[in-house]
Amino acid sequence: MRDIFVTAVVFGVLPFIFKRPWIGILLWCWLGYMNPHRQAWGFAYDMPFAFITGIVTITAFMFSKEKKEMIWTRETILLLMFIGWMFITTFFSFYPDAAWLQWDKVWKIQLMVFLTIMVIKERQHLHWMIWVIALSLGYYGVKGGIFTILHGGQFRVQGPSGTFFSGNNEMALVLAMLIPLIRYLHLQATQQWVRFGLASAMVLSGVAAIGSQSRGGLVAMAAMGLFLWFKSRHKFVMTIYMVIAVAIMASVMPQEWYDRMNTIKTYEEDTSALGRINAWHTAFNVAKDKITGGGFEMFRAPTFRQYAPEPFRVHDVHSIYFEVMGEHGFIGFGMFILLAVFAWLRANQVIRACKNDPERKWAADLAAMIQVSLVGYGVGGVFLGLAYFDLTYHLMIILVMVAKFSGVLDRVPQDSRQGSARPQIHPAARWNK
Fold first, then answer.
1. In this predicted structure, what is the pLDDT of residue 417?
2. What per-residue string of b and e applies to 31-55 under the rule 16 or more CB within 10 Å gives b?
3. b/e burial code for range 184-199 (CB count within 10 A of at least 16 → b)
4. Which of 16, 25, 194, 257 has a C-alpha 20 to 30 A away from that of 69?
5. Whole-angstrom Cα distance, residue 248 to residue 145?
6. In whole angstroms, what separates CA 280 from the centre of its chain?
7. Are 287 and 330 in contact (CB under 8 A)?
8. What dihedral angle (degrees, nearest 10) is formed by the CA atoms of 231, 237, 241, 246?
9. How far, in Å, CA of 388 to CA of 106, rounded?
C-alpha cells in the first residue's frame, strides 16, 4: 500500500511541474529529505523517484518562458569552484570505482541545489520549500521522539536505510540542524494550533536526537540549543521548550545512556574515539602528501596501512572537516571552510538590514535560524560525518535567496539628501560579490 501511495503522489505531481517548475523543487525536497520510498517494502523501495523528478524539473524549466538567471554571489561562485575541485580530485582518487559512484551522488545533489536558486523566484515558494524540508525531516524527529519515550530510550533512533542519515550519529546531526528551521516556521505561524504542533515537533525532535544515543549528537544539540536560545526573540518561551525536552529526557533515558555519554570525558579509554582520532591523523597525512587528497571513499584499510599512525586501527573518519581534508586535500578543505564563513557573513548582513523592518523581519528570523543550524552542523560535524549532505548546501543557497527576496542584494538610489541621481550600493548590500 505504501508503494502505491508514494508512486501515485510522485507521478500525480509530475504533470504539474511542466507548468510550474518550482513544484518540482518541492517534490525533490520531499523525496530527498524524507525518502518516503524507503518507508515502503515493495517495488517503490529502489525506484529512482528523485532522479525522475530532477529530469522532469530540469526539462520543464528549460522549456519554460521563465527567465533563466543565476544569482552570482561569492557563495555561488565558490560553491561552483568547490564542485569543480571535487571533480578533479575524483580523477586522482585512491579508489576510482568507489569514488566515481560517490561523485555521481554528489554532483546530482549540487545540480539540484543550483537549480533551486534558479527556479525559486518568489518568497512564498521559498517559504513552502522550507515547510517541505521541515516536515520531511520532522517526520523522523516526531516519530523518533515518540519512539524514545515509549521505549524508555532503550533503542537508538536511526534514519531510513540507504540514505545519508541512516546511522544514529548522522540522524542526531540532522535533527540538530532541523530544529532551528522548525523554530523559524513557529515564529511565522499565526494559527495557534500550528504553533502548538511546531512547538511539539521541536521538543520531540530534541528527544529523538538524544534518543539516537550519539555522543557527537549530544554535543551538537548542546551547541545548537545554546545558540538557539541566544538568537531567539522570545527567550522565556524557548527556555520552557528546552526545559520540557530536558525533563522528558531525564525521565525516560536509562542509566546505560548516561554511562555512554560520560565516556566523552574519558575518550582516551574508548576504542571508538581512538579509532576516529587515528582516522583524523590519516586524513591529515593524506592531505599533506597529496594536493588532491585521496578522493571520495578513501578511508579504507590500504590507506590506513600507508598513512595512519596505527595502521591496523581502521575506522570511519566521523568528521566533516577531516572527511573533506582527506578526500579533497587542503585546497578542498579551505573551500569548504570558506563556504561556511561566507554563509555566516551573508546571514549577518541580512540580519543587520532586516531585523528592524517589520516587513522584512521574516528574513532576519530565517537568517538567524540558519545560523543556528550551521552552528549545530559545525560543532556536531567535528565528530560526525555528513560533509556532502544536501541540507548544508541548501541552507547556504537559501541565505542567498533570502538576501535577494528581502532586497539586501538590490541596488538602491543614493539618498535624495545627497542631491545625486547616481545609483549606489545600499550599505546592507555592499558585500554582494
1. 35
2. bbbbbbbbebeeebeebebbebbbe
3. bbbbbeeeeeeeebbb
4. 16
5. 10
6. 22
7. yes
8. 80
9. 7
- pLDDT tens, position by position, 166-197: 788 888 889 999 999 999 999 999 899 999 99
Spatial contact of 157 and 144, defined as CB atoms under 8 Å apart: yes
Hey, what's the cell of 210? 538524544
Cell numbers at residue 338, please?
Answer: 570558506
Q: Are 76 and 397 in contact (CB under 8 A)?
A: yes
pLDDT of residue 421: 39
Buried b (16+ CB within 10 A) or exposed e, 332-365: bbebbeebbebbbebbebbbebbeeeeebbbbbb
Domain residue ranges of the chain, discontinuous segments joined by +: 1-68
Residue with cell 550599505: 427
Whether 324 and 387 have beta carbons less than 8 Å apart is answered as yes
pLDDT value of position 415: 38
pLDDT at 424: 42
Can you name the residues that pair with 411 across neighbouring β-strands?
425
Q: Please report the pLDDT score of residue 308 as a whole number.
A: 92
The answer to whether 374 touches 343, Cβ cutoff 8 Å, is yes
pTM of the entire structure? Answer: 0.87
Cα–Cα distance for residue pair 52/418, rounded to 1 Å: 55
pLDDT of residue 155: 82
Cα separation, 221 vs 210, whole angstroms: 8
CA distance 174 to 35: 14
Considering only CA atoms, which of 190, 156, 183 is closest in space to residue 170? 156
Q: Which residue has the cell 551547541?
A: 223
**What is the distance between the alpha carbons of residues 177 and 380, in angstroms, rounded to a whole number?**
10
**Cell for 145?**
521522539
